[in-house]
Design goal:
The chain has 2 domains: 130 residues, Rossmann fold (3-Layer(aba) Sandwich); 165 residues, Rossmann fold (3-Layer(aba) Sandwich), CATH 3.40.50. The protein is built from 11 helices and 16 strands. It is globular. α2 packs across α6 and α4 packs parallel to α5. It has 320 residues and is α/β, with parallel strands linked by helices. The strands form 3 sheets. The protein has a 7-stranded mixed sheet, sandwiched between helices.
Length: 320
């Protein structure tokens, strides 16, 4: 199976533990994930140990689950924001190396503690505030696609790796690269199909989340796609706030990231000190502004576009 997790955290086949599996969202999202092909080994909810959800055994803690199923190497979390840090620590203490933290509203101080713990244990955390990730190798973590049948139909194997700070744009940018005869604005000003039946397709999509302290960053994800032989072009939704885009641009200039990159950069009219869109989009200094990031990315060789529907024509240019 392999896929992008091989390059993110050296996991070839994810064996998943679901936190909060007995809750409404935990149940429905577990069905989505399993329907797409993800192997869910167990779930955990404090006080619910001994139960089952759709045949999946439930344990009180991550350590209990890992003791019973030592093959577990990944976890996805459907727990309230205030419980995320404790649950993440439980997972990392049990030796789990890849965590997907879907909750919105996690306190920044908790995100910092989680990131420090991940560094200590060698774990990788996607999120908080993420819809998760999907790899066309056959696994899905989180919320992407809504229903498994829709996800299988609309996220098809191909050459584009998508990274995004937005949940909605993660799904849109990924799915539209898998549409035959996709119409859109062309570089010459006309409007029409950007490619024919032979669409570019998707290798994987990762939503790094919109919080001020992300676990896996844009650069971390770009490094993984750089190593992934399926991926020929990266498409990124970036925005103001944090240093993620600046770090990516530096890595491009240094030759660490060599594959073509198309960026839709949001936040053109965001004012300093205003939490427009995501909390992580707040501008704290000049380097985090739209103008500074656009200049840095373009100077590094990225193709920066101002509209989300302009991404697809820019991508198509690389496959002509």
């Amino acid at each position: 199976m392999a896929g992008i997790l091989k390059y993110l955290c050296d996991i070839h086949t994810p064996k998943v533990l679901v936190f909060g599996i007995t809750g409404r969202q935990g149940k429905s999202r577990s069905r989505l994930m399993r329907g797409f092909g993800t192997e869910i080994v167990a779930g955990t909810t404090p006080g619910k140990g001994g139960q089952e959800v759709d045949g999946i055994p439930v344990y009180n803690t991550a350590s209990d689950a890992v003791s019973a199923h030592p093959e577990i190497n990944s976890a996805v979390f459907f727990v309230p924001a205030g419980a995320v840090a404790k649950a993440a620590f439980d997972a990392m203490d049990a030796g789990i190396k890849f965590l997907v933290l879907t909750a919105d509203g996690v306190a920044t101080q908790d995100s910092i503690k989680i990131k420090e713990k991940a560094h200590e244990t060698g774990a990788k955390c996607l999120g908080p505030n993420t819809v998760g990730m999907l790899d066309t190798a056959g696994y899905l973590f989180g919320l992407i696609g809504g229903k498994a049948a829709w996800a299988k139909k609309n996220y098809l194997p191909g050459k584009v790796g998508v990274i995004s700070r937005s949940g909605g744009l993660s799904q849109l940018l990924a799915a539209f690269h898998c549409r035959p005869n996709l119409p859109g604005p062309r570089p010459d000003g006309s409007f029409g199909p950007l490619w024919g039946e032979d669409f570019p397709g998707l290798s994987a999509v990762l939503c790094v989340g919109g919080d001020p302290v992300p676990g896996i960053t844009l650069l971390d994800a770009a490094r993984a796609f750089e190593a992934d032989s399926r991926t020929k072009v990266m498409v990124i939704y970036a925005e103001t706030g944090t240093t993620q885009e600046n770090d990516l641009a530096l890595a491009m200039r240094n030759g660490e990231i060599k594959k073509p990159i198309v960026v839709f950069l949001g936040g053109k009219y965001t004012e300093a000190g205003v939490a427009q869109s995501h909390a992580g989009a707040m501008i704290r200094n000049e380097s985090e502004t739209y103008a500074a990031k656009k200049k840095a990315l373009e100077n590094a060789g990225a193709r920066v576009v101002d509209r989300p529907d302009s991404v697809f024509a820019a991508t198509a240019e690389f496959f002509k």
